[in-house]
Amino acid sequence: IDAVIPLEHRNLWKKYAIGEFQTKEEFQGEFVRHVETTLARSLYNCDELAAYQAASQAIRDRLIVAWNKTQQKHTLRDPKRIYYLSLEFLMGRAMDNAMLNLNVKQLTGDGVSGFGFRLEDLIEKEPDAALGNGGLGRLAACFIDSLSTLNYPGWGYGLRYQYGIFKQKIIDGYQVEQPDYWLTFDNAWEIPRTEIAIDVMFYGYTRKFTDDEGKVHRIWEGGDLVQAVPYDFPVPGYGTENVNNLRLWSSKPNREFDFAKFNEGAYDQSVAEQQQAETISAVLYPNDNFYLGKELRLKQQYFWVAASLSDIVRRFKKSRRPWIEFSDQIAIQLNDTHPTLAVVELQRILVDREGLDWDEAWEIVTSTFGYTNHTVLPEALEKWQVDLIGNLLPRHLEIIYDINLYFLQDVEKRFPGDHDLLSRVSIIEESNPRQVRMAYLAIIGSHKVNGVAELHSELIKTTIFKDFVKIYNEDKFTNVTNGITPRRWLHQANPKLSKLIAEKLGGYDFLNNLGLLKGLEKYANDKTFHKEWLEIKRANKARLAALIKSQSGVEVDTNALFDIQVKRIHEYKRQQMNIFSVIYRYLQLKAASPEERKKFQKRVSIFGGKSAPGYYMAKTIIKLINAVGAVVNNDAEIGDLLKVVFIEDYNVSKAEIITPASDISHHISTAGTEASGTSNMKFVLNGGLIIGTVDGANIEITREIGENNIFLFGHLAEDVEDLRHSHRFGHTELNPDLQKVFDVIESGLFGDANIYSNLLNSIGNHGSDYYLVSDDFASFLNAQQQVDKAYADQDAWAQKSITAVANMGFFSSDRAINEYAENIWQIEPVPLDN
Ligand code: GL9
């Protein structure tokens, strides 16, 4: 109470409350003040970096004013809130996004140019917040953008890694990892909240005790404490005052020095032990779609979950509502199984700390959580060793056993005598060593489970979670197809196209209502519009060509078809199949006469993406792509007919340049393996067509834009199992065209053939060809031919491109968030004050 300014003083306060700059001049005033005071510099040493920092401070001030208003309003109205728990938020840069959302970009640009700076240069000074691996982390970033834009009261909770995803260097054709220390300079986009640090415990033991009423309890005590310090990142919505919060936790040594553990003479060692606490949030694990059972990763998960839940529960308790209303006020979404310990932690808080009965607590827990599954790949499913959990979190392991016991008792009642079923669905896998199946715990602890595209949501019901569909009712399982924010992925990344669309549709309303793009359809056959459309594509290709030239020295012709595959390097995503087809094309060009060659479509094959540091096959694929580039790009006979480029260190900021520049992009995973994909949506929204398999969101994209506007090929998900079976038992010949490609690799054309032998042997030479590269190769080459043919008719191509864009409204993350809000979270937007 004593923290509140008394009524009689509030007018004075309001007189001095920070105003929001409205004009270029006001911005300039703020800019100079920040250079001179915040940065303690002057007009004599204000370089580009300082100018970026001062401009971002000025914009941050505005954000914070709106952020405060939003949070005050939410505290006052106390609506139901959604908390999105994600171990990854792949945000990219903040400044451009903030300027566009606050509608101050023009003014800021004019303001800094008054001091001789170019806004584009300042934007480039900001390091990416690269706190994610790929699609899953970028999805979380798009989702919080939509939560703010749609005025939902929603917070993200994550970890503030000091090192984001590593920086990729290509040296001698190989990937080399370098640390991404992104916090070298002050970060204007975060607000440290040291005053609300939370203690998190690890290790220790559990003890039984009986209370005055004779009730038996178990408590957890005696462990090591680590401090969780929150850093708040304001998340502005577009076209609204609403600014939500992304709260990222950073680990610090505990405030109290542990004198019990402190032996005299071992002071330095004691301090060093304390410092260990900081390693918890030090680094993002760089694996995509792959699980690694490291203790530090488990520590990260619990640290983040415990701090977030403590924060959420504290906020709930301030409202003095009864516990029974917890899930009327709070929804928590588990982004993959990474935060599944939250289920256990909430049950522990309610039972051990707040004294609720088990059943009452469990009802609250299960009505609060929802779980999103993002992959069916078996190597990606988290299973923690029982002993690891028991040592680090002894009380949680007991609770997991109890959850399992009650669950299995229920199942036994409903399916008496089905012991196979019991062992199949048990949270504990009775393997050696025993393991906790986190996905099962997430399903049992949630009221809804969703996949991320239609096919994927069907597949989880019929394969990995089949038994749970039988146990629960079918409508516990649902689908929410992924989406992307059109603010970043159209307006910010492709300002020219956004402007052209706005001219045709009479304004920028489509950025809040992407379905309005439908209005473009009537221009699909308009030849003058085709020209404008293709001209913008050309300009975007020139922008990418400049990036390629500056990075790799390769000059590419913007008249060529730009063919792009950028995403994490993974065998299931089949970059190997793509580069094999490029080699095949090269062989055909070499075999052709000079006359025949002229008939070939010029192409630039562009690759980009990181491999997990320990993923040998993926690293081999990167080496092969670079080796092919080195041969092809230096072949004078081939010239501009074919270029092969690997863009180093693919990240969000580069994606903003690459995506608008594509004519065709590859989304060619083995059917049934890519849960959704989201870059497929980004490319099509920017007028690029796609070549893809019948997988993930490609299927829904086809349904929306029409099958004439996409190049589909390959076997269907339903065929995959039989094909794999036939590889194991039958004798399968390698596709003859693929054999030619293997022969030339083995001849040493791309360097020592031994480098590639494991890659080739996993496919041919009685390899299992688990990802069906050979099975799909013929239809892949055929689809490539269709692409060439279609591209030759530029008007027909423009028509496809425009029609596709016009029908992409469904893939806005606003639509996805509205579906979550209605079907899973039961939350409503909080209207703006007027
Ligand atoms: C992923 C899927 O592989 C993608 O197909 C999907 O689009 C995204 C978002 O739902 O989720 N699952 C997954 O584990 N990753 C994905 O990208 N990987 C990471 O980014 C860690």
Strand content: 15-25%
Based on the structure given, which CATH architecture of the largest domain is correct? 3-Layer(aba) Sandwich
The shape, in one word, is globular
Helix content: 40-55%
Number of helices: 33
Query: CATH-wise, what's the superfamily of the largest domain?
Result: Glycogen Phosphorylase B
For the termini, the CA-CA separation is 28 Å
Mean pLDDT: 96
Concise synopsis of the structure shown:
By secondary structure, the chain is an alpha/beta fold. The protein has three domains: 18-77 and 96-127, no CATH class; 78-93 and 128-481, Rossmann fold; 488-811, Rossmann fold (3-Layer(aba) Sandwich), CATH 3.40.50.2000. Helix 27 links the parallel strand 24 and strand 25 (711-713).
Q: What does the model show?
A:
The protein is of the alpha/beta class. The chain has three domains: 18-77 and 96-127, no CATH class; 78-93 and 128-481, Rossmann fold (3-Layer(aba) Sandwich); 488-811, Rossmann fold. The strands form six sheets. Strands 1, 4, 7, 8, 11, 12, 13, 14, 18 and 19 form a ten-stranded mixed beta sheet that branches. A six-stranded parallel beta sheet has the order 22-21-20-23-24-25, with helices on both faces. A hairpin with a 5-residue loop joins strand 16 (428-429) and strand 17 (435-437). The structure holds ligand GL9. The site of ligand GL9 has 19 residues, from helix 7. Ligand GL9 binds at residues 133-137, 139, 288-289, 374-375, 380, 452, 482, 674-678, 696.
